[in-house]
What we know:
This protein is 56% helix and 2% strand. The chain is an all-alpha fold. Among the domains are: 157-195, no CATH class; 207-318, no CATH class; 326-355. It has a two-stranded antiparallel ribbon with strand order 1-2. Helix 14 (211-225) packs across helix 17. The longest helix has 42 residues, at 325-366. It is elongated, with a radius of gyration of 36 Å. Residues 3-11 and 17-35 have low confidence and may be disordered.
Amino acid sequence: MTPACHLRQFYRPALTGGLALLLLLILAGGASAAQGDNSTCLGCHSSPGLSVKLASGEVLPLTLNAKTYMNSVHGVKGLTCVSCHTNIVGYPHPKLTAGDRRSFQLERYTQCKNCHTKQYNEVLDSNHARALAGGDRQAAICTDCHGSHDITRPNQPRQKLSATCQKCHSKIYDQYADSVHGKALNGQSNPDVPVCEDCHGAHRQEDPRTVAFHLKSPRICGDCHGNATLMRKYNLSTEVFNTYVTDFHGTTVKLFEKQSPDHATNKAVCTDCHGIHDIKRVSDADATVVKENLLVTCQRCHPDATADFPDSWVGHFDPTPQRYALVYYVNLFYRILIPAVIGGMTAFVALDALRRIISRFQRRNAS
């Protein structure tokens, strides 16, 4: 046997073994990625400038800051890349089907339902989801509000909640930021004032333009302004909601809410007088309910109202001898008169019936 034959006999097994080892390493790398080893993914995706050009001409960034992800809520809990990127099982990755960045986002956000089923189902019944189903591709989805690789707790800090809504609702946010609620939140980090989600909901937002939402809006305000402990903390009236539902406006609105929630009423709710996102302190010169502006506010519904018209309303206060004394004493008079009249009539009827019964027995005994 020649030396060349010996060499061929040596190299052939070696070459075969080398190819087998290389194939094993490739498969192992794919298996490692499929099992969720983030270091394998970051081997490429931590490289600066990594991106792909989509059919629309947009550039989709593919570089990930590993530290940012590890500090996110998912990173802290140990979730791996393939926990969300379930379509990635190795390399090369499947070809992207999205033609533009928004299409890519709309394809990927549905993965959230795998862990957050309750919240995802609530979103499906939201105003955002209805807009999306109606063809508005810019309607908010999970990642628009929460982010993707940099997700943090939504209420840390609390100001972040309303600032998130600002991305789409900037005009409304500016009104809110200049309101008594917004100033307390952004200027004082007040933990008690309402943010957008407190009134509109987090995942299941209702359409605030509907009649049903308008009718139930006093109850939304009442969640805070009817809370005696909370109102006492800020020296505010705890009877705001109760005094509203007992006056003509509130009584009518509550009846409509219970009996005909889809029928509009022209009776005022809280926001009709105080504003919606632009609510001011009642002592603010620009407030719609300050005495100097109250007539104009009333004239929105009562165009013929005269200068003394607002004086017929006692506001959100129970009348006392010190405040609205005349109303207090009239109420007191009727609280005494009505029971006295009804009680007196009841006693009269009872005594008359007793006399008749006694007279009947007396006649029967006499005969």
